[in-house]
Amino acid sequence: MTQPILEQDAKVLIALDFATANGALSFVDQLNPNECRLKVGKELFAVAGPDFVKALIAKGFDVFLDLKYHDIPNTVAKAVQAAARMGVWMVNVHASGGSKMMKAAKEALAEFEKPPLLIAVTVLTSMQQEDLAELGLDIEPKEQVLRLAKLTKASGLDGVVCSAQEVTMLREEIGDDFCLVTPGIRPAGSDVNDQKRIMTPPDAMQAGSSYLVIGRPITKAENPVAALAAINDSLR
Ligand SMILES: O=c1ccn([C@@H]2O[C@H](COP(=O)(O)O)[C@@H](O)[C@H]2O)c(=O)[nH]1
Q1: Alpha-carbon torsion 207, 138, 92, 185, what sign?
Q2: Closest-CA residue to 114 (of 86, 87, 152, 80)
Q3: Residues within a 6 A CB radius of ligand 1
Q4: Is the pLDDT of residue 7 over 50?
Q5: Which of 4, 64, 173, 219 could pair covalently with 90 via S-S, beta carbons 3.0-4.6 A apart?
Q6: Catalytic residues (predicted)?
Q7: What is the C-alpha to C-alpha distance for residues 35 and 59, in angstroms, rounded to an integer?
Q8: Domain range holding 137?
Q9: Model-level pTM greater than 0.95?
Q10: Is 52 among the domain residues?
Q11: What residues form the annotated binding site for substrate?
Q12: Region 190-218: what's the mean pLDDT?
């Protein structure tokens, strides 16, 4: 039997969008922490909570806590501290919460010896121009992404969540020293679901994404381990 090739710095963050802790756990038990990182979002966190996140970390996984905080500065600062105490690798806020909120979150992490990466969501990958228009924003998603990414950088955060379609622009405008985490990743031929601004895994890496968030194309695959292996192979 051939040994799996271990990733030095796994680029795939699997979105654990499961309705129960048991469902998520039986899925995770098939995975190797050298081959992927894990993302815990609102659905799983609501049913499984901090202890589940700590259990994933104890199994050796880097965990991105994707709760997309958006609130007054004090509340968000306390929330990112709570995330840091869980030992997560990455946590996020919404950039549209503004610079005061983002700076408060960043400052709140200063007391931690090894703080998590702090990134901000720009424009959700499920949104397109008509969705922004509905909010009174008569601009293309990429313009709003650039505006919010510049605000995030100026607020001292480590990076943003954006679609891979904006990565080339952000690398040109903001540079290489900024973490670009891209959901809306779809291997060729897979269901798009509710995503709108999508890209394939190799194209996203080629464009300059730092990490690829991938959920359903792996979690709903007939053989999730094989689906992850195929994606990792396509990135080499
Ligand atoms: O702009 C965003 C921000 C976060 N997400 C999250 O990523 C995953 C994507 O899952 P798929 O099944 O691969 O569509 C999901 O947890 C979202 O909450 C995003 O899609 N877009």
Answers
A1: negative
A2: 87
A3: 15, 17, 41, 121, 124-125, 161, 183-184, 193, 195, 213-216
A4: no
A5: 64
A6: 68
A7: 13
A8: 7-235
A9: yes
A10: yes
A11: 17, 39, 66-75, 125, 186, 195, 215-216
A12: 98
The answer to whether position 1 is within a domain reads no
**Mean pLDDT score of the chain:** 96
Three-state DSSP state, 152: helix
Residue 214 CA to ligand 1 centre (angstroms): 7
**Domain containing residue 63: CATH number:** 3.20.20.70
Task: Report the SS3 class of residue 195.
Answer: coil
pLDDT at 171 over 70: yes
Q: Tell me whether residue 140 is in a domain.
A: yes
Q: How many domains does the chain have?
A: 1
Looking at residue 87, its pLDDT comes to 98
**Cα 20 to ligand 1 centroid, rounded to whole Å:** 18
From CA 124, how far away is CA 122, in angstroms rounded? 7
Neighbour count for residue 228 (Cβ, 10 Å): 24
Statement: residue 1 has pLDDT above 70: no
Whether 201 is in a domain gets the answer yes
The pLDDT tens digits for 66-95 are: 999 999 999 999 999 999 999 999 999 999
